[in-house]
């Protein structure tokens, strides 16, 4: 039966269900493409024969080969697409520089795609959070505790939180603060504490952006 | 590697297949017993039992699901698909009696998926097949969920052996959630 080689590619990927990237099987892809070429040429000649000599009984055979061509196409496309999904996950797991053994498993076009993806992600990250940008590939898990350690970027002087305590916001000092995500609270305090607001917004944007980007 | 970042294309629901889903491709590779209503000239080499250059009309052969779906036409009779053993009357009564007893992995590892795809072929028994698959799933679901939530850090191969792919995915998800919690 046709298309056995193409399904082998899919089985190889399916075996590694945890997202590891196996080596790019250039040989198998070449064999699948050769099979597709042979099927296509046979179909071409049969179509000509059916049209010119009126042999309409060849039509089921033509349809059969066409199904095989579509199947091969689907398998190759799914193979390449799934590999891209895995490579994209690698950026989030390993960072911008991939270990050499993983890079050997990628073909030239996949490396090119990875570089482009890195660039797009970096441009996006630089556009967030003011001047320096925000690295959203850090801190991928949501906070487990109620309090978070916050470092002040600018000198602000004294600041009173709504439960009455007064904290001193000096440049580079670190303070334990509650993460308050209520929009109204932030709104009313906006004109007092742009720096505090700035820190909190960085955190919120970080978690939202991470979830959205991974879809 | 942490699997949170790798999100493969999930299998399709019901009668639809997802084009890029690896699970759906492997599912549609399963073979079904079919009978050709038309002749297929020049393809005789595919059928091992005969030595004719063509596949003759009325040949019984095993075709993969993707091919049967591609060639099947409602109006013109090109192909007629017979139901595999486990979707027929006999096995349906077994599933009705007690679904937990059956080894669904042996019965074709893609019981639910293949059953859903079979509904494409307009067999007169379609409503009964659909009902049988649904009732089997409902009957087995409880046990799968319970065992996945309570099998923390144990060897689960004996439990997982008798499950088909859909139930195994469910089991794995239940276990991983349990671990995180």
UniProtKB/TrEMBL annotation, chain B:
Top-level taxonomic group: Eukaryota
All residue ranges annotated as the DNA replication complex GINS protein PSF3 N-terminal domain in the record: 20-72
Stored Pfam families: PSF3_N (PF22466), Sld5 (PF05916)
SUPFAM superfamilies: GINS helical bundle-like, PriA/YqbF domain
Domain GINS subunit residue range list: 93-177
InterPro entries: GINS_A, GINS_bundle-like_dom_sf, GINS_Psf3, GINS_Psf3_sf, PSF3_N
Cellular compartment(s): Nucleus
A cellular component annotation (GO) from this entry: GINS complex
Principal localisation: nucleus
Protein's UniProt keywords contain Nucleus: yes
Single Gene Ontology BP annotation: mitotic DNA replication initiation
Keywords: DNA replication, Nucleus
Assembly information from the UniProt record: Component of the GINS complex.
The protein's role, per its UniProt record: The GINS complex plays an essential role in the initiation of DNA replication.
Stated family: Belongs to the GINS3/PSF3 family.
Protein's name in the database: DNA replication complex GINS protein PSF3
Organism: Denticeps clupeoides (denticle herring)
């Amino acid at each position: 039966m046709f298309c056995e080689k193409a399904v082998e590619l899919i089985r190889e990927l399916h075996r590694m269900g945890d997202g590891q990237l196996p080596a790019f099987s250039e040989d198998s892809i070449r064999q699948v493409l050769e099979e597709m070429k042979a099927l296509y040429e046979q179909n071409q000649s049969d179509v000509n024969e059916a049209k010119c000599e009126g042999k309409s009984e060849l039509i089921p055979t033509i349809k059969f080969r066409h199904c095989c061509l579509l199947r091969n196409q689907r398998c190759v496309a799914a193979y390449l697409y799934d590999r891209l999904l895995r490579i994209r996950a690698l950026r989030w797991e390993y960072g911008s520089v991939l270990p050499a053994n993983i890079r050997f498993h990628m073909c030239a076009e996949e490396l090119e795609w990875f570089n482009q993806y890195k660039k797009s992600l970096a441009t996006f990250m630089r556009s967030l959070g003011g001047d320096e940008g925000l690295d959203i590939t850090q801190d991928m898990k949501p906070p487990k505790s109620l309090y978070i350690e916050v470092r002040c970027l600018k000198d602000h002087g004294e600041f009173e939180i709504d439960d009455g305590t007064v904290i001193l916001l000096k440049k580079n000092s670190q303070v334990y603060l509650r993460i308050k995500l209520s929009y109204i609270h932030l709104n009313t305090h906006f004109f007092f504490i742009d720096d505090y607001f700035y820190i909190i917004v960085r955190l919120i944007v970080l978690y939202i952006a991470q979830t959205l980007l991974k879809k | 590697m942490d699997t949170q970042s790798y999100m493969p294309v999930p299998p399709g629901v019901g009668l639809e297949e997802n084009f890029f889903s690896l699970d759906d491709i492997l599912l549609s590779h399963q073979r079904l017993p079919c009978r050709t209503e038309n002749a297929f000239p020049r393809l005789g080499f595919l059928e091992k039992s005969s030595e004719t250059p063509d596949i003759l009309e009325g040949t019984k052969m095993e075709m993969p699901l993707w091919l049967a779906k591609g060639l099947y036409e409602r109006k013109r009779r090109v192909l007629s698909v017979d139901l595999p053993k486990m979707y027929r009357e006999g096995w349906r009564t077994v599933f009705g009696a007690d679904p937990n007893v059956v080894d669904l992995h042996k019965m074709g590892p893609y019981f639910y998926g293949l059953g859903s795809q079979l509904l494409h072929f307009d067999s007169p028994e379609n409503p009964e097949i659909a009902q049988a698959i649904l009732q089997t799933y409902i009957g087995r679901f409880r046990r799968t969920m319970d065992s996945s939530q309570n099998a923390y850090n144990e060897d689960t191969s004996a439990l997982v052996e008798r499950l088909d792919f859909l139930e195994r995915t469910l089991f794995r998800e239940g276990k991983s959630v349990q671990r995180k919690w």
